[in-house]
Amino acid sequence: MWQWIKKWWGIIRSPAKYFSLGFLTLGGFIAGIIFWGAFNTGMELTNTEPFCVSCHENNVYQEIQGTIHFTNRTGVRAICSDCHVPHNWTDKMARKMQASKEVWAWITGAISTKEKFDARRLHMAEREWTRMKKNDSLECRNCHEFSYMDFTRQSSRASTQHSSSLADGSKTCIDCHKGIAHRLPNMSGVEGF
Question: GO cellular component terms (predicted)?
Fold first, then answer.
């Protein structure tokens, strides 16, 4: 067995001796496509609701079920990644790297129970609100387009806020819509509450 590994390692270390440059280039290209396909498929699997629910079933997933984002008259439903993962590739990869801390927290047990999760809820919510504020609530805007809002069908308060603060850019969606899909943490000390 060891001799076989040694033989193939020798071939890999000096490939030009056995394979043409064209074969190596084509092989590298095919291996790159396979790697990219597997990587992208793995990333997309982490954007599915079953993946998210595998850790969040007993806390935030139950909360969203009673909201307009889960069930509504049109049948259009948002899943976790629609709000928590940017759609363009580079921002998505950056968010996935940030989310690895959340996966680590789950694996190590820091947020593995409802009580532990609730103890860290404000910290996690503030981090998410900050992220959404920095990107001008991009995930909200992927579905909700300001230019298509019908202010006549909104409440007077919503119409006033949308046509002023949202229109002039002084506020973004998350400034007013904290808790739109999840139960708010203890908000004492949070601006506006």
Answer: plasma membrane
